[in-house]
Write a structure and sequence with these properties.
- By secondary structure, this protein is of the alpha/beta class.
- It has one domain (about 15-189).
- The protein is built from seven helices and six strands.
- The protein has helices at about 1-10, 55-70, 75-85, 95-100, 100-105, 125-140, 155-170, and strands at about 25, 40-45, 50-55, 145-150, 175-180, 185-189.
- Strands 1, 2, 3, 4, 5 and 6 form a six-stranded mixed beta sheet that branches.
- A hairpin with a 5-residue loop joins strand 5 (about 175-180) and strand 6.
- Helix 2 crosses helix 6.
- The chain is globular.
């Protein structure tokens, strides 16, 4: 009985991910990204921004941004925060979202992360990028890699704005995710 309870109590339920239709690629180059250091910024066709980062750093990055903005989480909310596959909303609304049962979260409209890119004065995406640098460098002396997952229907200037934001934070090696024509797997360039 103990072995059946442990996986159930530690399992991460997969929440619906933002739909991003990736472009096809016929390129032959493939870059191996070091595990544990990859941040992904996704942009859907409505130009909403999403952020995710490899475990165990994602929740630490979110906690740093929350502390800077004086957003507090309960113990139960911190447990739920560790299960989140990506961040998709303003940090001020995250505690309320984490308090909802999982079945109700699926009905919440994901508005994306506020950013200067969307003419918001509030630039939380930039704070997440800076926090990722800080957390990784503090923990192990390394810097993060970032990948952009942009919907194939976006205009190039929308993606260019994200690239400029990353470059403002000294991220100059940026990977773009595409779907290979013959395979159904992501390819990073």
């Amino acid at each position: 009985m103990v072995t059946a309870v442990f996986p159930l109590s530690t399992a991460r339920f997969k929440l619906p991910e933002p739909y991003v239709q990736l472009t096809s690629s016929s390129g032959s180059g493939c870059l191996k990204i070091p595990e544990g250091r990859l941040g992904v910024i996704s942009i859907d066709k409505q130009k909403r921004l999403y952020f995710s980062f490899d475990e165990p750093y994602q929740s630490e990055i979110i906690k740093r941004v929350a502390a800077r903005r004086k957003v507090r989480f309960t113990t139960d909310q911190l447990v739920e925060l560790d299960k989140m596959p990506f961040l998709s909303m303003d940090i001020r609304y995250l505690p309320e979202y984490l308090s909802l049962p999982v079945y109700q979260r699926n009905n919440i409209d994901l508005s994306g992360i506020p950013s200067r890119l969307d003419n918001h004065i509030d630039d939380q995406l930039a704070e997440y990028i800076a926090a990722a640098h800080s957390v990784l460098h503090y923990k192990n002396g390394l810097y993060p890699f970032f990948s952009i997952w942009a919907d194939a229907n976006l205009e190039s200037h929308e993606v260019q704005r994200v690239i400029c934001l990353l470059q403002q934070h000294n991220v100059n090696r940026i990977n773009f995710a595409t779907i290979m024509e013959m395979k159904d797997s992501a390819l990073f360039f």
